[in-house]
Amino acid sequence: MSRALNELENIWSDLAARRGVLEGTVRIGALPLSRTRLLPSAIAAFLAQHPGITLMTNESPYESLVADMRAGNIDFIIGALRQDEDLPDLCSEALFEEDMLILLRNNHPLLRHPDPRSQLATAQWVLPRANAPARNLLDKAFVTPGAAAAPADGGDRGCGDGARIAAGLRHAGGGLRQPDAF
Asked: How many domains does the chain fold into?
């Protein structure tokens, strides 16, 4: 029902498009990977070329965005691909590929060990939420032959990354510091 109502709502912009006029609203589901650089620059470029179009973004969890797209509430989703998802009613296309890196500062405690890789499993981690593409990449990296065991973070407790980071800093002692203290 929602999909049919959304289609009816788009009739006027569809009729305008037949006359060569682009107007209406494009509703975008935005996942974390796209929100910081890709989507803002794409929106700016698009609006410069098509000022008659309104763009709206919905920043929600992947599962919610898929449900909204099926209902016709959003037009497309932009973010990291879900490799293990089987969604025969949806089409996905890779825009780019990106590697996952673990970076350490020069004097990081892990680098004091002769084999830093062997210490990764026991290191403290701030991890993406369970089933996020970045989390899946990290989990797979730890099951590579010869790699350390996968790090454990106590599971996804349903709180945001910021809350997990703050809780981890408080647990480690010293509390949170102002940026100028670093």
From this structure: 2
